[in-house]
Amino acid sequence: MSKPTLALIGATGAVGTVMRELVSTREDVWGEIRLVASARSAGKLLRVRGEDVVVQALAPEVFDGVDVAIFDVPDEVSAEWVPVAAARGAIAIDKSGTFRMEPDVPLVVPEVNPLDARNRPRNIISTPNCTTLSMMAAIGALHAEYTLKELVVASYQAVSGAGVAGPARLYDEIEALAGDRTVGQSAGDVRKALANKLEDDSPFPAPIAFNVVPWAGSYKDGGWASEELKLRNESRKILGIPDLKVSATCVRVPVVTTHSLAVHARFEREITVADAHRILEGRADRGPHGRPRQRRVADADRRGGHRPDLHRAHPPGGRLPEHARHVRLRRQPP
């Protein structure tokens, strides 16, 4: 039987680069791999599986004969082109937020709800936001045995979550402030120090160097940030708990890549630390004493550091710090 054809749309971006690395270093299950990007990138040569592949411009015909098309493009591009790929016979897997909450599009985390991918009437499968994805394998495993009731989540999100402009801005601010040991000691002094050194084009609402920004994403009704609503709504859909209580606070931190989360989960039945360790065994990379280490997962495939603990004030419950590099999360082999 011939191997399936894969198309990577957004192949020149940050996530596209990682996808090319993964298909090049994992078991070779694909036949042809087509690299697709905007017209300005067409004609470029990129390496995949040790060979140079010409980037094709996004057009309807690039999906002819494609079995699986993976999209990592802005929402507006997904909205236009994902249905085109699906209509031409490809299973379209979309990483944007465009289709996540559509009732006829499954939102899938392979470790949690893989069978949902079979029910795809539009031939589209969506994947969750990187922050939701970071905690979902662990939460899903615990939910399967103890039935989740409530989540209280605090995320500490790297600047890479804001796209290529995020790390660029952090590096620019660090360079601009380098050697100045007077900043960071009084209100507003970092902003003042940057005012005459950098353009006012930051993707963040406040300086990110020497700072944490208690806001991630865009402003939504009710005072929520978009990242916080994604955590709530996507968790409900993936786990199949439409009335799940979720309270989320998302903070941007001056780290290049790797999101961290502190997850407080309450379950129907009492759970012990030993139970949690048993269920989560092998699902993460832990350091000494079971403590997570952010730097060790900055360029790794594995989620890092489940450190379960009991929340003594509100049993039955648990506390679960997480780390995950958001551009490399993937299903782990059994």
TrEMBL record:
This is Aspartate-semialdehyde dehydrogenase. SUPFAM superfamilies: Glyceraldehyde-3-phosphate dehydrogenase-like, C-terminal domain, NAD(P)-binding Rossmann-fold domains. One of its GO terms (molecular function) is protein dimerization activity. Residues 5-120 form the Semialdehyde dehydrogenase NAD-binding domain. Keywords: Oxidoreductase. The lineage of its organism: Bacteria, Bacillati, Actinomycetota, Actinomycetes, Streptosporangiales. Residues 325-334 have a biased composition (Basic residues). The active site is at 130 (acyl-thioester intermediate), 259 (proton acceptor). Its EC number is 1.2.1.11. It comes from Nonomuraea dietziae. InterPro entries: NAD(P)-bd_dom_sf, Semialdehyde_DH_NAD-bd, Semialdhyde_DH_dimer_dom. Belongs to the aspartate-semialdehyde dehydrogenase family. Pfam families: Semialdhyde_dh, Semialdhyde_dhC.
